[in-house]
Design brief:
By secondary structure, the protein is mainly α. Helix content is 81%, strand content 0%.
Length: 132
Amino acid sequence: MKKIIIGGVLAGLVIMVVGFISGSMLEGLYRLSPAGIFKTPNLTNLIVYYFVVGLILAYVYSILKNAVPGNGMQKGMIFGFLVFLVGTIPGLGITWITMTVRNRLLFWWAVFGLVEMALAGAAIAFVDEKTA
């Protein structure tokens, strides 16, 4: 349980930092999007969301880690890549199909989503390996 909590908090922190960086880097593309398509998120809810996602990822990793190839942080990055494939990509696909979001924005969401999940997975695996 300790590994899940510490790994989840660290993964949530990683996801939050990458999310804030990507949000500021893509601000211009957000402004070019149709009016009203995005709302300004409540910062508290956003932070809670990041940590809940981190905890869920750490819990799922604890269940699946023996089925993921690799060792140490590499194993975590592979786990993150798999989460990206089954989570981020389908979400971006349905967004592309149903919303008027610029393709460049979708591309950058995919790039940052991959970075986010790979780093979050690495953080979870690091904690899993180092925590008794």
